[in-house]
Amino acid sequence: MAVIRVIVVGAGIAGPVLAVFLKTRGYDPIIYERLPSPGEGGLSFMLQPNGLRVLSLIPGLLEQIPGRSPDSIIHCSSLDGIEDILADSDISPDTMRERFGFPMIGVRRVEFHRLLIDTAERHGIEIKWGHQAIEFEQSEDAVEVTFANGAKDTASFVVGCDGLHSNTRIALFGKEKADFTGLAQFGGLSPTPPALQGKFALVNIYGNGRHMVSYPVAEDKRSWAITTREDEVKEDWKTQNMEQQNEIRGGPLSAWGFGAGDMVKTAQNIVKYGLYDRPELKSWFKGRIVLLGDAAHPTSPHLGQGANQAFEDIYHIMRLFKIYNPSAAQPSTELLSQVFTDYQDLRLPRTSELVRGARKQGEARVVEGIDACRARDETIRAGPNDDAARMASYELLSGPFKNSEI
Fold this sequence. Notes:
The protein is α/β, with parallel strands linked by helices. Helix content is 34%, strand content 27%.
C-alpha cells in the first residue's frame, strides 16, 4: 500500500510536532516553510502540563527540552512607590507533577524550535525552507500547492500550521481585518537581577497602566514582557533600533521594583509589538485542507496557552485519524470531512473560549488610575481562594487526555 503524502504548511512550533506524529503513524509528511531558515523571531514561552502531556507521546523529547521550571508564582504590586506582594503560590516541578503529571518549563523560542526541527529531521521528515504557499487547487483525491518561487507539490491533504499570518487561512477564507486591541508589549531576555537571584519564580508585577511577566529560561537568564496601553503599534516582532532600546532602558519602566527595572536596563535586545484581534472562524477546513494552531485560533499571550493549545489540536486530530483511518490509507474527501468536522466541533468552542479569556486577562491586568489599580490588586490578592478559578486552571492543565488514545 502506498504511503499517503501530507503537506504541512509551516515549520514553526506546531508543524514539526504534527509531522512527527503523522510520520510515526504511517503517513509521509513534508513541511514547507516560507522563511529561508529557522528564524530568530519570538522570545520565549511557557510549556505547561497540558502541552507537555502531548509532547510526552514523542519518545525522548521531554528529556531534551532546554529551559527552566519555575518553583513559584509571585504576584507583586508597584504603585506610587509602594511595593507589595499580593500572592505567592507553589508551582514547583514536584508540586506540578503531583497535580498534573508534568511541570511547567520556560523555554527560549529559538532553542525549543531548533529541538523540534532536529526531532523532525531525525524522523526522516524533509523540510523545504523558502517556500511560501500561495495557491491551493483541490481535486477529488488530492491538493496541489503552488509556492511563490514557482515550485509545486501534490499531497492527499494539507494542514496549515503557518501561524498568525497564515497564507493557508487567507486562501481558504480570504484576508481579514486585524483589529488593534490598544495594548502593546515590550519584551527581552536579561540576566537574572539581584532581587531574583536564587528564586526561580514566575513573577507578575502590576503597575498603573502596565503589567510585567517574567520567568526563568535558564539558570542565569530570564525572559520578560511588559504590556502597556499604546497608540497603534505594528504586529511584527521587531527589535527596536539602539536609540529606541536605550530610551526604554532609561525610561520609567527601568525604575520598577522587584527586579523589573534591572531586567529592562540589562536586556540584550528589546522587541516591541502590538496585540491584535482577528475574527473567530466558523469553520477550520474546506475539502482536503485544514487549519491548526495559531492559523486557526490566534490568541493574545496573556494565558500563555498559544503553543500548548496547538499541541492539543495535534493530539485530537491524530486521535480522530486513528479512529476513522487506522490503516493510514488514502482517505476519501468524505472521510477527511468526518475527521475535520469532529476536530473543529471539539476544538473550536474550546479555543474560542480561551482566546476570549486571554483577551479579558490582558484588559484586567492593564488598568489605569490608582483606584482601579488597587481594585485589581485586591482581586489578585484574593485569587488563591477563588474556587472557580482553581477549578478552571485544573481543567485546563489536566488536558487533553488522561490515557492517550493514539
